[in-house]
Design brief:
595 residues; alpha/beta; 6-stranded mixed sheet; 4-stranded antiparallel sheet; 19 helices; 10 strands; 10% strand; elongated
Length: 595
């Protein structure tokens, strides 16, 4: 009963999505299916009537009846044909609606998910299963509707045969049950095998994407590793398919044997009804009526079983989708909207470890930033600098400790209003295959003021990217990629960083967070960026992370991070007087620069 209940819950879930995707298409498919089920029954009785007329002695009255019956048969055939064509069109449209609706649901889940899930292979396994099985929702909807039609055909054919002999109908149905059992068994086996071996499937997709994508195209040609990757792909795929092929072979053999039963039963019945007619117990038209209904019953039962098995198979796949959509976020949205300015940001005994890692990235970190401060966080790679920004933006939740803004725990704040207070440029910035105007405007989509172009140009000028704008063939409307436009432009890494900086400046929030803002810039551009940071500090709070200490004097406060702990803090002059870790790093870079 639990399995039946679970099956019906999944069917209702899929039917709900079908209605959400297109109410008209869903209802139209159901109504057309009912009519198409009724037509073969009317067709069978009409054929019986025609054959009986043909077998009767000729008369003019019978001739007119025969003509009317043939016209009725034509109308039924035309109706069936036209409804079939209409149904095919509606199914195509409905499937597109369904696929779009499902893709949107998966995307909504993915974009709202905590970043911690992207650090785990379990997330990618679940997403891969959900994406692969997303078509199952469409399949279940299709199977529900067609299964409903098959069930109606089954009942009608059984009732007609019951008028002749109810035992025949029962035997026909029972003969198909072994096929159902075998199909269900191997459907379950194949599905569980695919689920357990999804890692191999993902590896094949990964290798294929490397060979056919752009990101690794240069490495493949430089290193000549294309044949190696192709060989690895073939080996991985062969191992994956070799195991699946065994299951497919067994399913084919056993289902073929099981399907012999209905063939034997139907042949016996056809012989019996032929003898009944031959000895005069039945009209000749009964042969067409009842043999067609035996075939209809067999077809309907088989189809109903197939649809039921497919629904069961797809039910397991839908569970994957529901499992992906059911991933719980640790970062819970708060209720309070941040109003006014951010007067203070404080970390109190904050520790953090990334999921699956036992070694903490941050360990008991404490510091406070006041409004208008210019703060630099320095340290070696892996010291936890970028993690501080991710925690402040609530991409992750601290393992222990609290983060406060204006004296309140940031978990109390609405995520949207919290993040809106920050201009951020990440070390791993992105330039999208959109126009330059769209790339900049993405950071503040809520602002629809008429001076958008002017604001964008100001942001480009401030970031030093105005020189890029001047050389673009279509100005702000130039695509920053050739992926979708032949007139698109491919920028250098340094130019892309300037665009990312301009995007951040366009947002114009009161707190600026910069993660290695000059990593890809030349010396001139770097100097301009730090001068920009200095100018931005007039009225704004600036927190920046950098490896390059030559321009760090602009910071009023400097925190030195090492092994997840703040080991030194103060101004540049204060830290140089300490002759500690900061002074060592600064002098090392100064010496290297002088060389």
């Amino acid at each position: 009963m639990k399995k039946v209940k679970s099956l019906f819950q999944v069917m209702l879930y899929c039917f709900k999505i079908s209605i959400e995707a297109s109410t008209f298409c869903t209802l139209a498919r159901v109504l057309i299916k009912i009519v198409l089920v009724a037509i073969p029954i009317l067709n069978a009785y009409t054929m019986r009537y025609i054959i009986n007329l043909i077998a009767t002695t000729y008369s003019e009255d019978l001739l007119s009846s025969l003509i009317m019956a043939i016209i009725a048969l034509l109308l039924l055939s035309l109706t069936s044909y036209l409804l079939g064509s209409l149904s095919a069109y509606i199914v195509d449209v409905h499937n597109i609606h369904m696929k779009n609706s499902i893709d949107i649901k998966l995307a909504q889940t993915a974009v709202q998910m905590d970043l911690k899930h992207f650090d785990s292979p379990e997330y990618f396994d679940k997403f891969s299963n959900a994406k692969r099985d997303s078509s199952a929702l469409i399949t279940i909807t299709w199977n529900i509707i067609d299964g409903f039609g098959s069930f109606l055909s089954l009942i009608s054919a059984f009732c007609i045969l019951a008028q002749l002999n109810i035992v025949i109908g029962i035997f026909v149905i029972v003969s198909i049950i072994p096929s159902f059992i075998v199909s269900q068994k191997y459907t379950r086996k194949i599905y569980h095998w695919e689920k357990e071996n999804v890692m191999q499937d993902r590896q094949c997709n990964y290798l294929y994407n490397i060979m056919t994508g752009k990101d690794c195209a240069q490495d493949l040609r430089l290193l000549g590793i294309g044949p190696y990757l192709l060989s690895l792909f073939k080996t991985t795929w062969s191992a994956w398919f070799g195991q699946k092929k065994v299951l497919l072979r067994k399913r084919t053999i056993f289902t073929t044997i099981a399907n012999l039963n209905p063939i034997v039963i139907s042949t016996i019945f056809i012989g019996w009804i032929a003898v009944e007619i031959f000895i005069g117990k039945r009209e000749i038209g009964d042969f067409t009526l009842y043999t067609s209904q035996v075939q209809q019953l067999q077809t309907s039962v088989t189809a109903f079983i197939v649809y039921t098995v497919n629904i069961y198979d797809s039910k397991l796949k839908v569970n994957n989708i529901q499992s992906f959509q059911g991933i719980v976020s640790d970062v819970v949205d708060g209720q309070e909207i941040i109003t006014g300015t951010i007067d203070s940001i404080e970390f109190r005994n904050v520790s953090f470890s990334y999921p699956g890692c036992s070694v903490p990235v941050l360990n008991d970190v404490c510091f406070k930033v006041e409004s208008g401060d210019s703060v630099a966080i320095v340290g070696l790679n892996g010291s936890g600098k970028t993690t501080i920004i991710k925690l402040l933006l609530r991409f992750y939740s601290p393992s222990s400790g609290q983060i406060y803004i204006n004296g309140k725990d940031i978990t109390q704040y609405d995520l949207g209003s919290l993040r809106q207070k920050f201009d951020v440029m990440f070390q791993e910035f992105n330039v999208y295959a959109f126009t330059l105007k769209e790339n900049i405007g993405l950071s503040d989509l809520c602002n629809t003021s008429k001076n958008t172009d002017a604001r964008i140009q100001d942001a480009l000028r401030t970031s030093g990217a105005d020189s890029i704008l001047n050389k673009l063939p279509q100005g702000l409307n130039t695509y920053l990629s050739r992926e979708f436009s032949e007139e698109g432009v491919k920028l250098s890494k340094g130019e892309e960083q300037k665009i990312a900086l301009a995007r951040m400046l366009y947002r114009d929030s009161e707190v600026i967070l910069l993660d290695e803002p000059s990593a890809s810039l030349d010396a001139e551009a770097e100097n301009k960026v730090f001068n920009t940071i200095k100018e931005l500090n007039n009225g704004k709070t600036v927190i920046f992370i950098t490896h390059r200490l030559a321009n760090i004097k602009i910071a009023k406060k400097i925190f030195v991070l090492e092994n997840g702990r703040i080991i030194e803090s103060g101004s540049h002059d204060d830290l140089m007087k300490l002759s500690g870790r900061y002074a060592t790093l600064y002098n090392y870079q100064a010496e290297k620069f002088s060389i």
